[in-house]
Amino acid sequence: MEKQQKTEIRQPWDASREVPIIQNEQMPRKRVLCLKWFSCAVVGILVFILALLSKTSFLLLITSGNNQTKSVHSDKKTSSLLGIGFVLAGPNVLLLLKSIWKFIFKSAVMPCKKTVCWVLCVEFLVALGAAVLTIVSMPQFDIVTNVMILNSVTILSAVFQVVAECLAKERKRFIMMPVSSIVLIILGYILFAVSFLIIEESSLQVKISVGFAIVGTIFVSLNWWENYSTLFDVSFLADISNDIARSRNVVGIISSLMRILVTAAVLGAYVPLSGQDWKSVSFFIPAVVVSLVAIQIVSSALCRWFVVVACKMHALRCSFLMPMYLASITVLAVALVPVAIMPLGPKQNSTYCENVQETSDGIWMDMMMSDVKRTLCVRNIVRNVRSEGLACMGISALTWWLGLILSTIYVWYLRIHRIERTQDLFVGRMYEGAFLEQSMLLNTRFEIRKKIIEKQKQEKESIKVFLCGTMWHETYDEMMKIIISMFRLDKYRPKTKITKNKDKQEEQIKSDVEFEFHIYFDDAFKDNDNGRHANEYAETLVEVLTEVYTIFIVENPSIFKEMPTLRSQKIIQTPYGGRLEYTLPKGNVLMVHLKDKHLIRHKKRWSQIMYLYYILGWRLDRRYFKIEKDNTYILALDGDTDFQPSAVMLLIDRLKLYPEVGAACGSIHPTGTGPMVWYQKFEYAVGHWLQKSAEHVLGCVLCSPGCFSLFRGSALMDDNIMKRYTTKATEASHHVQYDHGEDRWLCTLLLQQGWRVEYNAASDAYTNAPQEFKEFYNQRRRWGPSTMANTIDLLGSGGLTSERNSSISKPYILYQIISMAASILGPATICLLIAGSFVFIFQMGTNTALALAVVPPAVYLILCFKLRSDTQITIAAVMSVCYAFLMAGTILSIIGDLIRNNTFMTPSGLFLIGMVVLYLTTAALHPQEFSLVIYGLLYFLCIPSGYLLLAIYSIVNMNNVSWGTRETGGQAKTAAVGAIKKHILQAGCCKCLCLGSREDANEEIPKPETTTGTEKVQVQVPLETKRSRNGSLSDCAWIEHLKESYDFHKSTLTKDENDFWKDLQKKYLEPLKESKEQQDTIANDLRELRNKVAFVFFFCNALWLVATFFLQAIGDYISIKIPKVYPNGTHSTTETFSLDPIALMFLLSFALLLIMQFFAMLYHRIYTLIHFVAYVDTEIKDLRKYSIPNVDSSIQHENKEPDTSLFFHNPSTPRGSVTLV
């Protein structure tokens, strides 16, 4: 149905409306909360189980070192002590490896001498205390004492908390908890000493162990000094803390080495002093000890990781604190209940301690439980049931446990950001092997009340987000998508909200995130008989804005009342053309900048420079540059991008809480119908699932697509970024790198300057993709060379970039080099794949098959140098169909070969099965996109077209710098919007691998348009204007024309802004004027560049093919024989498979890349879930605050509840509809 322009605003009596198909896409709150609570419950259970395993295995290991126990023979007790040493050293070894890795590939800042001395002293005392406590003292005690004495390491932390609260001069209501903790821990020490030294007569060794235990716990409690150092008004401690934070990697190496050396020294000295020797562990360590050590180290590391996950998911109380608090009690119950009820001997009427077996033979667990009982029965107060002694033992255990709770109760009230860094949650080291739950609790960052209030004030600072979309020749439906998305965001976060306070007085609450919308419309004017008018595309945009405005201005469509009138909108004449200003229903502002290409430079990059300098250069400098530069973000959009508010908020999280992130992008989903769109849907999905996630985890995302990316204002204003982005293309390589890949080039500038670019998989955006084969090839003809140029530029400066950018390491540079090499050798690899297809299907020789596989691409390569681009694409389309049939035959042939050989353990079978399993598993981890695997078969059939023919076409035609899509030379009539929609195909938005911007399509054919081969260079000469005066509008005819059709109020710019636009035009944005000679020079330079690149590109592929050909010709002499293996594991004695070394090397390299990407994807999926759950927990509160619509005071609603549903796209929704939430 054709959309006709409406020339008048709908009257109040005209109640019936014709509106776009709008669907309410909301994820129900109950489903979201169920997901949240399920995730938190799973994490909490895992934390509890792992903490239980860690503590139980460690205590059993200590019990096995007691001289009274039997599970480890008396002459093997040294192995138990050695196991305790391994447990103490385990976290230090992990920290050492992590710090060395970061020291080599990231930061290598050295600490000052006083910091090194302080760290060495503190770490020496802590390591000494831990080793003496666990190796010397605890093996002498019973299980109850050992379980609870570890809780007494909180003594100094409680003291520091009291001092910090006193110095803060705040209300002292929280000070009683650490004071009570100190009292309880000291009481526990007293009862502990009384029990062993007074009530029962202990041996000298036990008495010494009591003293060592108390001193050891005090030494260990020094470990968390850094958590409180900044709270004291002591410059020495503050300087050391700042220096440690600056040189964390070197400090980690020093501290871990000190811990390991001290633990080894204590262990080495204590073994001979205790009358034992090392000979018993020279050749054999009991399996019990090895098992306990392995369980303890693995469970502790996993428990620590899940604790971090629980904190980041905002499940602090239920998934972190409660499991940690209950761990000691549960371990005590697990240890005591079984030994209290199990029959340990044949005597039925004997006492508890008389019923202990003396043999060391039996089930391992029974033996350990017997040992636990023996440690209790050694004590006189248990053996003789002395009530005063048992009371001292029980009360001391209880006071230590309560002391731990009271000294860490501040964690219960800890305020956590929506997403939080681990280093901001926990201070200092990873964890302590012997004190897992105590170290995780005490390591949690301590904040006094004053700091919390200051932090809350900082969080209330508003974030300013400018949404900047670029348009050119978008259709009505495409414009409708982005405009509705903007209005939806305006409704989601009103500029201000009027509510009633406790005194029932109205007050205005400012939104935590302020939005301002900008649309930069290229070539928005046309010449008319009576002057300069807005063209039909600009008028279509005005019509869309008016229509959407009438939809969103109605608060409740179900209530029949007078239609509210639209606010008076402004129309302004500007030095660059004109501007339309709208005040949206919820108070945010939308500006439409109509560009006249005769007044200001057109094309997308120059539109971006317009809004960068307008917003970051003039607006911020004039208003609040010094205050809000870091809190100002720019969301780059294309003219057809469809997104939900949640997608924007998730990107804001990344920039708000990670100051080194300069840009963040979401997951881009192509829309449309037809085989080309289906192919691109799977291509985009795989690119996001594997490549984008791997880039994010291993280093940095190389390209943040211009169709939906959030940029930090201070990053864009950094040196060598925004200024260099204004560079005019003067060389052939500039046209390829700058103008055809501006989003990737901007990200390259950010990375080279040290900023990080990230990918958020939970942030979804939708945009149109090419639906025709020709459009697709022309789009990728631009993206391919620009991607290669920017990647080579980044790799060329890899050494300097890795020094500036801590997220880009030398291994990541190597990863990108391998990926680039795989991309360059793609055509030759596809030829080898086709040759293999010939061998499978036609049973021909390998060399003959290789020759036949190379001939068609070689012929196509020659034709591309001779024929016009349209003819090249036609030939490629025909060859793509032929190759698709060949690939289908290949699949069936591989399956038949597996059946014929009675095994799938062949190189081709393993490769095919491995790829299918990997993609299915990856898709299963993205359940909302799992249906896209259906298009995987089409993607496989089109591999030769996408990686062979397209590569040839892109390289040979890289000198053709025309845009290739949306090039509708004629001017469509305003009344024929439907015809425009029909004939202007929906062009793509962003590349799968680069995920480049689709709104690049707002550019016209550049002047130096060149073609290939024998085609003549065609130069587009700027049209002469029909205006009466050069460089300015002859009149305001366009304003009067729009005022007649729409309700606009004429306004003017301030003198300052008018002067700014004139200065900006003069310096950066004057229309390009190039002579015929300059255009010819650029065209020749582009052709020479094409020839050089094509020679290097295809020469590398030829070398790969020639090497393979000769290796196959040599045959069995150098081929690698692989025995034939049947599914049951048996080997064939006569049959083998052969692989040449190059093929094997390529397969292994490709498999290694896929494995790295797969595990990076797993890691990224976990943290995406964490971010999503945290977003759900915090955003519901903000929705209650900002998203409640204002209700007309004349209408009373009963049981009015705020709508706190979250807004997410449903990918299964038909893309023909437009979403309104």
UniProtKB/TrEMBL annotation:
Instruction: Give the EC number.
Output: 2.4.1.16
- Transmembrane segments annotated in the record for this chain: 37-62, 82-104, 116-137, 143-163, 175-198, 204-225, 250-271, 283-307, 319-341, 393-413, 813-842, 874-896, 908-926, 932-956, 1093-1114, 1142-1163
Question: What's the main place this protein lives?
Answer: membrane
Record keywords, A-Z? Cell membrane, Coiled coil, Glycoprotein, Glycosyltransferase, Membrane, Transferase, Transmembrane, Transmembrane helix
MF terms (GO), sorted A to Z: chitin synthase activity
Q: Could you tell me where this protein is found in the cell?
A: Cell membrane
- Which Pfam families does the annotation name? Chitin_synth_2
- Biological process according to GO: chitin biosynthetic process
The lineage's top-level taxon is Eukaryota
Q: Name a single GO cellular component.
A: plasma membrane
Instruction: Classify the protein's membrane topology as the record does.
Output: Multi-pass membrane protein
The answer to whether the entry has keyword Cell membrane is: yes
- Similarity-based family: Belongs to the chitin synthase family. Class IV subfamily.
Q: What is this protein called?
A: chitin synthase
Q: In the record, what lineage is assigned to the organism producing the protein?
A: Eukaryota, Metazoa, Chordata, Craniata, Vertebrata
